[in-house]
Amino acid sequence: MTARKPWQGVVVAIPTPFRDDLSVDFDRLQEHVRWLAEEGCHGVTPCGSLGEYQNLSDAERADVVRATVEAAPAGFSVVPGVGGYGSRQSRHWAEQARAAGAHAVLALPPNTYAARDVDVLAHYREVAAVGLPVVAYNNPFDTKVDLTPELLASVAETDGVVAVKEFSGDVRRLHRIRDLAPHLDVLAGADDVLLELVVCGATGWIAGFPNALPRLSVRLYERCRAGDLAAALPLYTELHPIFGWDSKPEFVQAIKLGMELAGRYGGPCRPPRGSLAEPARIQVTKDMERALKADADA
């Protein structure tokens, strides 16, 4: 078997733990990274959307990446998010990730306006010039750019662009991307399309709810990778309701609540993200209880 590349496997997009005063709790951050490694996950992504990177100061963001790399054991990947308002900012964060010892970066396209294809290509060339492998991140819901399979094929011509985190929810795109850019790894970018994408050939999962259910999530991922639908589908069915929260606007609050319900520390979010509305809190709790029962029964 060939060695796993740093962006492959179950790479968990980690939240940033905040204390009650909303300062970053670096001790809890590092403990969480070590715990995920012990539970069988393959890596982490700090400073992604789930990490509330937009609400971190520059100093905090750099310190989160450094603390994550410091806590990661040997063989455990760190793939920081380098999203920024412009290419200069994204390149800066890629340079910071390289200096900290990260293994690859997760890069959104320009996300403040509907960039032309030529601008998107220039953006990824700028980030890739830093020298770390680049995982493109397609999230057309949170950005104004959709990395369509056709655009991705052009992006993938840039040396150093190695994969895409596919968050569109359209599982048909996997096949089109593989046709147009067969050298590009496709990674499941949303928890609730994990089985559909991995069974069809996705080589990794940049994940949300493994923050609360790491060992069970890795077990599900491995079953999907093996094509063992008889074992994977019943488990996926039980986890799918909680996984669906990863694709909703309240995903940060939902995942932090899921962590609390699993006995971990989730903690608050920074404004403008507030607490979940009571109906959502009740539903997340119900869905998480179903997932925890599946874990106990597995």
UniProtKB/TrEMBL annotation:
Gene3D superfamilies per the UniProt record, alphabetical: Aldolase class I (3.20.20.70)
Which superkingdom?
Bacteria
Keyword list, A-Z: Lyase
Pfam families xrefs: DHDPS (PF00701)
Q: Which InterPro entries match?
A: Aldolase_TIM, DapA-like
* Family to which the UniProt record says this protein belongs: Belongs to the DapA family.
Its recorded name reads Dihydrodipicolinate synthase family protein
